[in-house]
Write a structure and sequence with these properties.
5-stranded mixed β-sheet; 806 residues; 58% strand
């Protein structure tokens, strides 16, 4: 019996020894620059297990003792096959070499399943690399992230030259736009024609529009997560572009090789340099500039430190000279009436991140973030007058600021199980309006400063079985509107108007005016029918505590942000989505179908004729509304061959209705009506064709249902003055829109002994000059009411750009 026990003990010990597993962890990096690669795939041939590097390039996989063959791949890089002998926990860094072929060949040959949705648990997510963005024809040839996002299914805008984008029925303020984790409040330059993101400084762009991971919150419809490049820690290099109206330059390199690197990237437009050639514009200025910067310090194998920032600004100085309105002053001199209007809006962000590896299973990222968006509008009229005292001026300033502290932890329990948890702490500061001037009615207006505090702990759990995968998460968000602030009180039996104010309550510094707390569950499920087919199901609930107040067709830089509080409730959005993904046998083609249904509660809507300009009691102009949106999105990608690209079609419906307890306030008698960006049919086609080793052509075509609008339907007269009557809200539609863009790229054969590489890109935006309607306006012609549709761009816009690297 004793011998039998010894034999059993020995057998069990050998079994345990044989089954011993160890953790293999480290970073996946670019061998030429030392930058970490996020979303790289590591696959173990022996066990069939695989992992993906996180947004900081870190991976962890659990393997049994013995010999293993690891296969590592990433878009645009040569695949690496590495053999390892696992006898203990190991830390290894895997370096990938960029594919030496041209950009077009990289997309054709490398990582054939890059557009596959079969491996992603979360439905409705889109990943764009810089090379994807740069291949899409853009206005004036400038690679543009926002325009690239607008080529994807489920994404739209209200028209050309507008700020932001709409995702699955959501307003533009319902998109959380992050640049190195810092929130961006205005993502455009020049009234929406260009985005603020310099593609040369961007490493990765990911849009979540279906399932949204629990670590994200604060917005209700989508997350656009943009990561800046870290800069090469191997050698100094640069790239840039020279265009007709603006240029860009990026420099990067090691401060201390393999340890400390930098990246600086800037852009500047020079529209205004041509203004002196035109008499009517010679005293005007219109330009933008931006600067991206990043420092990356590889302290040791367990610690990395990153400091990054962005600063960008738009400047518009418009001079209006009334030379025909000369007046004589008391001293007998004549004076002209001159008015100067100065617009400026700016974005500033700063992010400090610390990556720390506690063990081969536990990874931490600690982020401290500052974000500020501010604008100023000033007007000066130096017209003088007979007494010399009629000169007027005013300045209007507004801002929103964030201070954020966010510790985030990832626990790699094993190759199939991962947990992520942390807490997001955000302090908001809002300055709605400060006006100084000497004009009657706008003299020294100060609406004070509003503050908000949002604290949101979260936890998510990722698990993969043989064919079934789950991503489950829970986020709890608590928001408080803080003083000092004075809140008006209203007669509850009357609609909120200035005349129904019964008093006010003043709250002291940091006193809670109103607080809200809500659970935000997230769930994503995936079942693999085979290794090339998968079905998905997801649900998420989101709460949004800040709101963009704008009743214009397209949000302007001077619209204001308001926190939820005593009179404005937080927006609640619930979304259920499902999807199917299919790859052909060789993964040359990838197909996806996504469907969703969303409900909106407590959306901000505007009363008819709402006056938002410098209104201290904004709540008197607002209504609460509920709504819904549903749709289906079809997408197909071709990723191999001389012809590559994608085609997608979206059918969607987005409606809302106001929910005031007073029937007289409700729009359209309280019935549902289309939202401003309800566009049922959107068809997009993007194609790239390699003509030869030196030439390639890219094109983009879109067709979209015209957006809803409100028409003037009649006129009446009061005391000799004409007024219009209007239809129900959004009872009509603009004409359908369509546009085609094209670009040609010429890349000379690079010389082996030259570091400088150049290429030419030229083409045209809106090739056949279609006048796509943006808005409507009405006027009286021969005492008859006439309504016209207005187009922002109604002609082809050619461009030429020289891009270079060294």
């Amino acid at each position: 019996m004793k011998n039998l026990f010894l034999i059993f003990t020995l057998f069990y010990s050998l079994h345990i020894l044989q089954a011993q597993s160890y953790n293999i962890s480290g970073y996946i990096r670019d061998n030429s620059s030392g930058e970490t690669l996020l979303g790289a795939t590591l696959y173990d041939k022996q066990s069939g297990k695989g992992v993906v590097s996180n947004e900081y390039g870190f991976f962890s996989i659990k393997l049994k003792e013995g010999n293993h063959v690891l296969v590592v791949s990433y878009l645009g890089y040569n695949e690496v096959v590495q053999e390892i002998n696992v006898i203990e926990n190991m830390k290894i860094n895997i370096d990938l070499n960029p594919n030496s072929n041209s950009l077009e060949e990289v997309v054709i040959k490398a990582n054939k399943n890059t557009k596959s949705q079969t491996g992603n648990v979360i439905a409705g997510s889109i990943n764009l690399k810089p090379q994807d963005i740069k291949k899409i024809p853009a206005l004036l040839g400038e690679p543009d992230i926002t325009r690239a996002i607008l080529t994807q299914p489920g994404v739209s805008s209200v028209g050309e030259g507008t700020s932001g984008f709409n995702v699955r029925g959501g307003n533009i303020d319902q998109n959380l736009i992050l640049l190195d984790e810092a929130p961006i409040y205005n993502s455009s330059h020049v009234w929406g024609f260009f985005s603020i993101f310099n593609a040369d400084a961007v490493k990765d762009t990911k849009l979540y529009k279906g399932g949204i991971p629990a670590r994200f919150g604060g917005r209700a419809s989508s997350v656009l997560d943009i990561r800046q490049r870290e800069g090469s820690n191997k050698k100094f290099k640069g790239e840039g572009g020279l265009g007709l109206l603006f240029s860009r330059l990026t420099l990067e390199g090691p401060i201390k090789k393999d340890k400390l690197s930098f990246l600086v990237s800037g852009r500047r437009s020079y529209f205004d340099l041509f203004f002196p050639l035109m008499e009517d514009l010679k005293n005007n200025k219109v330009y933008f500039y931006d600067l991206n910067a990043k420092l990356s310090w590889d302290i040791n194998e367990n610690n990395k430190l990153f400091a990054s920032g962005y600063f960008g600004a738009d400047v518009m100085k418009l001079n209006f000279s009334e030379t025909g309105d000369e007046e004589t002053s008391e001293d007998g001199t004549t004076q002209n009436s001159d008015e100067t209007i100065d617009f400026q809006w700016k974005n500033t962000t700063a992010t400090l991140r610390w990556n720390h590896i506690f063990s081969d299973k536990l990874f931490m990222n600690l982020s401290g973030i500052y974000s500020r968006y501010n604008y100023a509008l000033s007007s000066e009229n130096s017209g003088g007058g007979p007494t010399g005292t009629s000169a007027t001026n005013f300045t209007w300033k507004s801002a929103v600021e964030n201070w954020i502290l966010k510790p985030d932890f990832t626990l790699f329990q094993n190759s199939d199980t991962k947990m992520r948890f942390g807490i997001n702490n955000t302090l908001y500061r809002f300055v709605p309006a400060k006006v100084n001037g000497n004009e009657e009615g706008v003299n020294n207006i100060d609406f004070g400063t509003e503050k908000g505090l949002e604290i949101a702990p979260y936890f998510s759990y990722d698990r993969k079985w043989d064919k079934f995968s789950v991503n489950a998460g829970l986020r709890y968000s608590w928001f408080a509107n803080l003083g000092p602030y004075t809140v008006s009180t209203y007669n509850p039996n009357l609609p909120q108007t200035v005349s129904s104010i019964t008093g006010s309550t003043t709250y002291g510094k940091n006193k809670v005016i109103k607080s809200y707390g809500n659970f935000e569950p997230r769930l994503a499920l995936k079942y693999d029918i085979s290794n090339r087919k998968a079905v998905k199901l997801g649900y998420n609930r989101m709460f949004q505590y800040i709101h963009l107040i704008s009743n214009t067709n397209a949000a302007l830089p001077f619209d204001i942000w308001k926190p939820s509080g005593f009179h404005i409730k937080p927006l609640e959005v619930n979304q259920i989505s499902t999807g199917y993904a299919y790859d052909t046998k060789n993964r040359d083609y990838n197909f996806s179908v996504d469907a969703y249904y969303k409900t909106f509660k407590n959306q901000v809507e505007y009363k008819n004729g709402a006056d938002l300009f410098l209104n201290e009691n904004l709540e008197t102009q607002l209504l609460s509304s509920d709504g819904y949106s549903y749709g289906i999105e079809l997408g197909a990608f071709k990723t191999k061959g001389k012809l590559t690209g994608n085609v997608n079609y979206t059918y969607s419906v987005t409606k809302r209705k106001t929910t005031s307890q007073f029937a007289s306030e409700n729009l359209n008698d309280g019935n549902y009506y289309p939202s401003n960006f309800d566009r049922p049919h959107i068809f997009n086609l993007t194609a790239n064709y390699k003509l030869s080793d030196k030439w390639s052509v890219g094109s983009f075509f879109t067709y979209q249902t015209g957006r809803p609008t409100t028409y003037a339907t009649g006129k009446f007269q009061v005391d000799g003055q004409q007024f219009f009557t209007y239809s129900d809200r959004n009872a009509y539609r603009l004409n359908d829109t369509h546009r085609m863009d094209i670009s040609f790229t010429y890349t000379p054969t690079p010389k082996e002994d030259r570091k400088w590489q150049g290429s030419w890109v030229f083409g045209a935006y809106n090739v056949y000059g279609n006048k796509n309607a943006f808005s409507v306006f009405s006027s009286l012609r021969n005492n008859q009411l006439r309504t016209f549709q207005y187009s922002v761009i109604g002609a082809p816009i050619p461009f030429i750009t020289y891009n270079f690297k060294f």
